[in-house]
């Protein structure tokens, strides 16, 4: 055996060992964070939700193709998000990779290439999530094709298709992070994405792009093209990625006092200081104040695309005000996530403020940031889809009420860690149930009664107000609830 | 009268008992060293003393407040420098200290004066407008030390005061802590570093298995090194039996 062959063999073996160690670390990280059985149950929860939703959608007459497309939209969105929700930036990259992924950070102390380590890390992530989350989603196909000898093959095919789209989503996000490490500013990356999406819409090429992102329904050539594209983008991103990238030290003029003074009277004193800190953290972290808008924009684009697909297949266009009002309220989750991303509850315990004070301040910040975040895409949706006045007004009430409700639900269940609770089976189930109780009936009405009648409009308006009140109560109780848990030492 | 009074303190996390039977008192003018190995219960005790944790049982009084019943009032009166690194914050040190001033209800003029004085003392004047997240750990520690003393509290709790500081600043901070305690205040320092404790503390409590195993005044003259006492009381071992690295190099040679 030559020396070169021995070196190659040793490289392969160490890469495999690295992969195994990273995989084990990922598993232990999740089981330690959420408890073994709570995390182990999570795929089961996903499977139950996916199969249940498929059965329910079939019962309401939704075409199989629409359901399959919807699953691919979810897989793509999850893939984009799994690349660390990351085009917003290096802060997130450092926080997630540096703090949590101990093995990944060993490239600073061991003779391991950071680029190679990152490549193996991402490969591990793709496989881990493909098994833990995408596979349970693919079980929906069992409900679509029915139980027979070919069911396992049908599930496996959908799994492969969804995994490809998931990996493509991850690759796109990683590409944006890699570009970022070459000093390209976030606004330029965001601009390129917007231009790309706008160009696709303007040239009418959305359908052909769509065909690529639903490989199970396209040709083998399309699927192979997606695989090749994903591999190319991934390899290119790793080549482009600059492991030595270091952000230059940033300075800022004193904005704290001016911002505190400009806040509403209800947020004066310690409350005003807590709100100001949250807003400045949001504005100065990578991606700036635009992060929540981008998250809302992604949701808007995904839902708008889904509406288009549904219309193509069934000929039904939902009431846009009701539909988008209900769905866009979900941005409460992403907005709150951004408001707590660079924060830690423990850090506030050095000051004479209660945890309830901190949660109150987060709610004020949420209203200040969340209102324009949802208003802009909502207005765009009702204008684009030409909602009637009644529909638009009812949708606006739903949007405000449901956003507050989803916010209350999130802070009550997840406290200060909205991102992490996505992987906790119990909390995730509770959150999903809570969202479903409000959203599912609303969407059904939005599809069935177009445009909304007077009675339906009043009923939905009342629902918006009631759910908003529930959200207010939940968010008020979140502070004392998490304060108690913190002081007990949980 | 003691400004910190702890009696029969117990705190457990599930089946794990972190602190049990903790007893001690700290008077004004003392720089009290809380010395112990990892997992001895030091951080849990500080968290109970500052109202961050509610004890299972026992009594705790800090500046005539009960931290378990009135945590905000306790934290208003004391200064706290936590061991845990602060999370990335996008405020500058100047803004961060304004934030602390607001939550502690200090007049802005006083905050500005204190900020300038501390920046000059610890040498971070040139970093006052740099984002906190972009500062080195040492610079971040300087800012955190400043926030703990910003309101000139009568009692200050400090977890590892000299972490990440260069030797020059370490000396400045040590001298400051000694003078601050001497000014009729109390400084409670939790540390692993025996040399630091020996250097600056007026009295130390050695903690092991969740309680004080011995207390020792360092003002009464030398009757044996603190290291010897520490090893004896914490591990029961004689310092002369401590593992030596001598000869390790030759043993490692193949």
From TrEMBL, chain A:
The UniProt record lists the keyword Ion transport: no
Keyword tags: Membrane, Transmembrane, Transmembrane helix
Domain of life: Archaea
Keyword Transmembrane helix on entry: yes
Membrane spanning stretches: 37-57, 69-90, 126-147, 153-179, 186-203, 223-241, 293-316, 322-339, 365-387, 393-416, 428-450, 456-475
Name of the protein described by the UniProt record: Uncharacterized protein
Organism whose genome encodes this protein: Natronorubrum halalkaliphilum
From TrEMBL, chain B:
PANTHER family (alphabetical): ABC TRANSPORTER ATP-BINDING PROTEIN ALBC-RELATED (PTHR42939)
GO molecular function: ATP binding; ATP hydrolysis activity
Species annotation: Natronorubrum halalkaliphilum
Alphabetical UniProt keywords: ATP-binding, Nucleotide-binding, Transport
Name of the protein: ATP-binding cassette domain-containing protein
PROSITE patterns: ABC_TRANSPORTER_2
SUPFAM superfamilies (alphabetical): P-loop containing nucleoside triphosphate hydrolases
Superkingdom of the organism of origin: Archaea
InterPro entries in the cross-refs: AAA+_ATPase (IPR003593), ABC_transporter-like_ATP-bd (IPR003439), ABC_Transporter_VariousFunc (IPR051782), P-loop_NTPase (IPR027417)
Ranges for domain ABC transporter: 4-234
